[in-house]
């Protein structure tokens, strides 16, 4: 009897179908934001929430280019920039945006006593002076061709509000100039935002935006196909079918800014020290097959460290090495290893789309040319720790690089600068291959303010890298989102979900 | 009695110290948190600055000493990710977890004890076979699978209950069943064997001979005596409930401590992980004490000196 009553209660109180969301956009990411201070975190999920509430000085466009947003910046000479702030912009609390506020933002980022996580992007800045109510002069310690790109990281926070309430309060009760106003944050449950109808760039079309952290991938899919949420991140290729067949939602993809590759430890006298051997490894990998069979098609083979979004990319020099096992064997024989050799390779598990499976596929393909690979799979945090401390025990390691600055310098200097020149910065933490010619062009490009000249430098750099083959070049990853068909929105390469660009049909 | 309680409370302190030390040691063996806090392309100087700011550059014994000293002052440190006090972050998430564990336990007792009694009274019948098969299943089914199946049936197919999140009693139903099933099964099995044993004993035979009704005999004479191991298991199961919460909270996006600490571990947020370990240890030690004291009430023969 009691059981019957219980079941009756369950039926009667059955939850209303969740698809009655109306003019509200619900976004499910894997984790909650850690803070709502837009310049003091290191995660995409947090950046996605902050981007609704705040504006940056320059804005990144979906195609990877940038444009002036809260103001404009003009180079007066190689070291001096004039910033002009747009007039008439107000924060959600009514505070006005002006040059003093921008100065406060720079000071906050450059305060050596309390470094913020975004401070690292602005370390070249020497001084900031307010020259008028809406103008500032910024000087850098060396020519800084990436100055404008880095202004896309310059998310502007209110001066008076923070001075009055303090950083800690601000991080939980953010006030910005952006299209959405903060309503509430129930930790690990939801963040609710409502449209800022006075937004200076126009009234947002969607009235309410809710972010929900749902850690388990299959729960995210279940919520999506029952209409409980509108957009989910990191849809697995295996779940694409379920989503597309649901009649409610569909998978949408975009090539991401992230490349996946294998770094080869070329130092010492082992076989990997030999350029021909490294080229042979590149010829021996069937990138097309890996993308098709291991990634379900969610990748684009690429033959250089860059991809088409990145300034400095060159189609010809980034053409993937063709799959040619015969040529690979020939090169190995030339190098003195006709019977192959063996080396060890590391891979993370669960950090990138099917990373471990990709590593296993590489092992299988290299076996076909007689190269035996001893694969060691590790959990990400200890893996990345070993890499950063240069203590990784394997001869090669699979890793991805998401170039968030959309500029060749970020990938090439960070990953491949060898530190071979005198009076120049030391070798990069991630580099194992040393080529003085490459180092020279990378350094020259760093202080070259002319766009065409810089492109030329990077073309040279890509040529050296392609010939030297310090990595096994693999592919550019694709990001997969699950999106309710009622939502008009296209994913972007920088992983930003900007509700201002979305619309509900 | 009082000296016993005081002695036990002192032992609680020892347990807390031990777990704090263990948490400290294991975390520091597992790698440098600074590596995960900065973008990979941050320079070595930036890493050094951050290491210095958090005191990770000091010798291990100095860090350990400082950690213990602060702990005695109730200072659990600051989260490396959100820069908020770790204790506050942990306690905020403790509420939902205790709510879930509490309902799970209630669910387990409400279904486990009657099922066990029923199986004992109807020993040898189909009822016993049925309840004990269910109990066996309940103990063997992985929490993860059960949670996903419940989502599939009640969320996806029937649309009866919300799939994830929190905020209303409806959100509690599926996680409660998920987290409580294993405990329900152990309680049912234990109750059954306890009651069966008691039903065979002399005092039950006497009670029946006195002409007491079957119900009174079962509940007042047999069950009360069979309750001691059951109470023990309830206390012990709190640990299982809390660790089961890690999985359950992850599946159902429940805003509790289990899921929070899982993320904290993978991000090497040392202060948060240490705080959670210490709070959990404190809670388990305390519950064990309460369980031991509950024996006094259940069995007047038990004396602590």
Give your account of this protein's structure.
By secondary structure, chain A is an alpha+beta fold. Chain A has 3 domains: 2-54 and 178-248 and 485-504, Periplasmic binding protein-like II (D-Maltodextrin-Binding Protein, domain 2, 3-Layer(aba) Sandwich), CATH 3.40.190.10; 58-164, Dipeptide-binding Protein, Domain 1 (Dipeptide-binding Protein, domain 1, Alpha-Beta Complex), CATH 3.90.76.10; 256-478, Dipeptide-binding Protein, domain 3 (Roll), CATH 3.10.105. Helices cover 30% and strands 23% of the residues of chain A. Chain A has 16 helices and 19 strands. Chain A has helices spanning 2-12, 44-53, 99-110, 147-150, 159-165, 167-172, 217-225, 240-244, 275-284, 287-294, 325-334, 355-367, 380-388, 408-416, 436-446, 451-468, and strands at 24-29, 58-60, 66-68, 71-77, 80-85, 125-132, 135-140, 180-186, 190-195, 208-213, 231-232, 249-264, 299-301, 342-348, 372-378, 396-402, 471-484, 487-488, 503-504. In chain A, the strands form 4 sheets. In chain A, strands 1, 8, 9, 10, 11, 12, 13, 14, 15, 16 and 17 form an 11-stranded mixed beta sheet that branches. Chain A has a 4-stranded antiparallel beta sheet with strand order 4-5-7-6, with helices on one face. In chain A, strands 2-3 form a two-stranded antiparallel sheet. In chain A, helix 15 (436-446) packs antiparallel against helix 16 (451-468). The longest helix of chain A is centred in the C-terminal third of the chain and has 18 residues, at 451-468. The relative contact order of chain A is 0.15. The model of chain A is unreliable at 8-19 (pLDDT under 50). Helices cover 79% and strands 0% of the residues of chain B. Chain B is flat, with a radius of gyration of 24 Å. Chain B starts with a helix and ends in a 7-residue tail after the last helix. In chain B, helix 5 (86-121) crosses helix 8, helix 9 crosses helix 10 (214-252) and helix 11 (257-266) runs antiparallel to helix 12. The longest helix of chain B has 39 residues, at 214-252. With 305 residues, chain B is mostly helical. Chain B has 12 helices and no strands. Chains A and B meet through helix 6, helix 7 and helix 13 of A and helix 2, helix 3, helix 5, helix 7 and helix 10 of B.
């Amino acid at each position: 009897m009691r059981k019957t009553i219980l079941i009756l209660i369950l039926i009667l109180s059955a939850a209303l179908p969740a698809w009655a969301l109306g003019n509200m956009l619900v976004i499910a990411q894997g984790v909650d934001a850690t803070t709502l201070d837009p310049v003091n975190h290191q995660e995409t999920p947090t950046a996605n929430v902050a981007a609704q509430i705040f504006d940056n000085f320059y804005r990144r466009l979906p195609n990877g280019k940038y444009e002036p947003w809260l103001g404009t910046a003009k180079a007066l000479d190689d070291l001096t920039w004039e910033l002009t702030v747009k007039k008439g912009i107000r924060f959600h609390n009514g505070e006005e945006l002006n040059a003093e506020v921008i100065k406060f933002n720079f000071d906050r980022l450059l305060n050596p006593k309390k470094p913020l996580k975004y401070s690292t992007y602005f370390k070249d800045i020497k001084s900031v002076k307010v020259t008028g109510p809406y103008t500032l002069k910024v000087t850098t310690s060396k020519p800084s061709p990436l100055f404008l790109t880095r202004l896309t990281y310059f998310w502007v926070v209110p001066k008076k509000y923070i001075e009055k309430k303090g950083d800690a309060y601000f991080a939980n009760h953010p006030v910005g100039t952006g299209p959405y106003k903060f309503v509430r944050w129930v930790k690990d449950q939801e963040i609710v935002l409502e449209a800022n109808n006075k937004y200076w760039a126009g009234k947002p079309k969607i009235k309410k935006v809710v972010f929900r952290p749902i850690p388990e991938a299959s729960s995210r899919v279940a919520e999506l196909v029952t209409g409980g949420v509108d957009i989910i991140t990191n849809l697995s290729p295996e779940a694409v079918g379920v989503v597309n067949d649901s009649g409610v939602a569909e998978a949408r993809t975009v090539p991401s800014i992230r490349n996946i590759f294998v770094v080869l430890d070329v130092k010492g006298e082992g076989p990997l020290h030999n350029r021909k051997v490294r080229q042979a490894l590149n010829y021996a990998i069937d990138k097309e097959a890996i993308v098709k069979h291991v990634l379900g098609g969610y990748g684009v083979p690429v033959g250089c460290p860059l991809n088409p979004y990145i300034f400095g990319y060159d189609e010809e020099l980034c053409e993937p090495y063709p799959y040619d096992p015969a040529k690979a064997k020939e090169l190995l024989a030339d190098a003195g290893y006709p019977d192959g050799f063996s080396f060890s390779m590391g891979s993370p598990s669960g950090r990138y789309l099917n990373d471990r499976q990709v590593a296993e596929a590489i092992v299988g393909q290299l076996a076909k040319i007689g190269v035996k690979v001893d694969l060691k799979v590790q959990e990400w945090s200890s893996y990345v720790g070993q890499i950063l401390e240069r203590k990784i025990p394997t001869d090669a390691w699979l890793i991805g690089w998401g170039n968030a600055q959309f500029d060749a310098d970020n990938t090439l200097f960070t990953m491949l600068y060898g530190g071979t020149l005198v009076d120049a910065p030391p070798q990069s933490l991630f580099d194992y291959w040393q080529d003085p010619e490459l180092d020279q062009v990378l350094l020259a490009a760093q202080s070259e303010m002319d766009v065409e000249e810089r492109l030329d430098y990077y073309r040279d750099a890509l040529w050296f890298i392609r010939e030297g083959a310090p990595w096994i070049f693999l592919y550019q990853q694709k990001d997969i989102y699950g999106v309710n068909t009622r939502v008009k929105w296209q994913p972007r390469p920088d992983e930003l979900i900007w509700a201002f660009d979305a619309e509900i049909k | 009695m009082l000296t016993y309680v005081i002695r036990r409370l002192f032992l609680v302190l020892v347990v807390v110290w031990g777990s704090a030390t263990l948490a400290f040691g294991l975390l520091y063996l597992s790698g440098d948190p600074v590596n995960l806090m900065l973008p990979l392309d941050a320079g070595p100087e930036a890493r050094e600055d951050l290491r210095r700011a958090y005191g990770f550059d000091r010798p291990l014994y100095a860090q350990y000493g400082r950690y213990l000293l602060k702990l005695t002052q109730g200072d659990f440190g600051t989260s490396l990710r959100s820069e908020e006090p770790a204790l506050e972050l942990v306690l905020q998430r403790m509420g939902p977890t205790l709510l879930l564990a509490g309902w799970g336990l209630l669910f387990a007792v409400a279904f486990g004890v009657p099922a066990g009694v029923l199986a004992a009274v109807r020993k040898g019948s189909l009822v016993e076979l049925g309840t004990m098969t269910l109990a066996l299943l309940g103990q063997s089914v992985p929490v993860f699978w059960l949670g996903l199946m419940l989502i599939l049936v009640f969320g996806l197919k029937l649309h009866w209950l919300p799939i994830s999140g929190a905020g209303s009693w409806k959100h509690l139903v599926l996680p409660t069943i998920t987290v409580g099933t294993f405990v329900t099964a152990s309680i049912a099995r234990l109750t059954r064997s306890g009651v069966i044993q008691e039903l065979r004993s002399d005092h039950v035979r006497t009670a029946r001979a006195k002409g007491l009704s079957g119900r009174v005999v079962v509940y007042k004479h047999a069950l009360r005596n069979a309750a001691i191991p059951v109470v023990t298991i309830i206390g012990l199961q709190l640990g299982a409930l809390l660790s089961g919460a890690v999985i359950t909270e992850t599946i159902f996006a429940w805003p509790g401590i289990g899921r929070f600490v899982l993320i904290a571990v993978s991000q090497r947020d040392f202060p948060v992980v240490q705080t959670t370990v210490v709070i959990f240890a404190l809670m388990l030690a305390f519950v064990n004490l309460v369980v031991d004291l509950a024996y006094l009430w259940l069995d007047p023969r038990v004396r602590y000196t």
